[in-house]
Design brief:
There is one protein chain. By secondary structure, this protein is α+β, with helices and mostly antiparallel strands. Helix 3 runs antiparallel to helix 5 and helix 5 packs antiparallel against helix 8. The protein has 2 domains: 137 residues, no CATH class; 122 residues, FdhE-like fold, CATH 3.90.1670.10. The protein is globular and about 50 Å long. It is built from 11 helices and 8 strands. The structure holds zinc ion (2 copies). The site of one zinc ion (ZN) has 8 residues, from loops.
């Protein structure tokens, strides 16, 4: 049996969460757009194993390779991403129009949406458009995911066990969007921007690097209790990421689908003043 596509996994999650049906529909156009998209030219990076390892040994992600993705490659994706954001949060309309004008004029482009230290997207995007950093990060994911997934596909296999220790994606450099708890309770962080995944210490914060059981909090709120799901948060920087224990939840979908499909956990974390790098479309919509 072949792996389900992202679209099929999303449809499956929508069936599993009927009470969230209306709000989760906000993501449908993006999921459909990603499935329809095909690159206008080959995008796969040509980095070989030695070049990848040389960068990883120095603690440098492969984000520079993503400079190869140009605005015309992702035009349709960016359009759908902006429309989806406006639909969810009409209040962002003016800022997004400003951004669209800058994009058309070539002053903001794909490189401006790539990760920089500790964030997704260049600070200029925020400044030019007047958009909050977490919305820029979400816009980047909605706009670039299929292109970056394709770009980095050939180099995934080069990442060996223990080759990367940092809390950012070894491929695109983005902070993690979700955590999978796998065999022996080990953690695998998932990147929504490029679809990468990497092993990470159990008691370490991927955002600030602080280590130790007393710094990490697990939220399994009564109001949103579901077997296998939890919010993992850091007392030091107050960053959080949601996690799914794959040992108890074998029918879970891909990390991105599980993340987008569980906005009720984001709500719980935000109420307790925790933050994450990317905005939630559902919470933006105020639903
Ligand atoms: Zn990535
Ligand atoms: Zn932290």
């Amino acid at each position: 049996m072949s792996e389900p596509t992202l679209g099929e996994a999303w449809a499956d999650l929508r069936r599993r969460r009927p009470t969230l049906d209306t709000v989760l529909a906000l993501y449908d156009d993006v999921i459909d757009g990603w499935a329809r998209w095909s690159p206008p030219r080959p995008l796969e990076t040509a980095l070989d194993a030695t070049e990848c390892r040389r960068r990883w040994d120095r603690g440098v992600p492969l984000v520079e390779a993503a400079h190869a993705v140009r605005p015309h490659d992702v035009e349709d994706l960016v359009g759908t991403a902006m429309e989806t954001l406006v639909q969810a949060a009409p209040g962002l309309g003016e800022s997004l129009q400003r951004l669209a004008r800058q994009w058309d004029a070539g002053r903001v482009e794909t490189i401006s949406l790539l990760p920089a230290r500790g964030r997704i997207g260049a600070p200029e995007v925020e400044a030019l458009a007047g958009l909050p950093a977490d919305v820029v990060a979400l816009l980047a994911v909605l706009s670039l995911r299929p292109a970056l997934e394709r770009l980095f596909a050939p180099v995934r296999e080069h990442l060996g066990e223990g080759a990367w220790q940092l809390g950012i994606c070894p491929f695109c450099g983005a902070p993690p969007g979700f955590v999978d708890v796998v065999e022996d309770g080990r953690r695998r962080l998932a990147c929504h921007l490029c679809g990468g995944a990497w092993a990470f210490g159990k008691l370490r914060c991927p955002f600030c690097g602080v280590e130790g059981a007393q710094q990490m909090v697990r939220l399994t709120p009564d109001e949103a209790r579901e077997e296998g799901y939890a919010v993992s948060a850091c007392r030091a920087c107050r960053g959080y990421v949601k996690e799914l224990d794959r040992r108890t939840r074998w029918n879970g979908g891909p990390p991105l689908v599980e993340d987008w499909g569980s906005p009720h956990f984001d709500l719980v974390a935000r109420r307790q003043q925790y933050w994450r790098p990317e905005a939630s479309l559902v919470l933006l919509a105020g639903a």
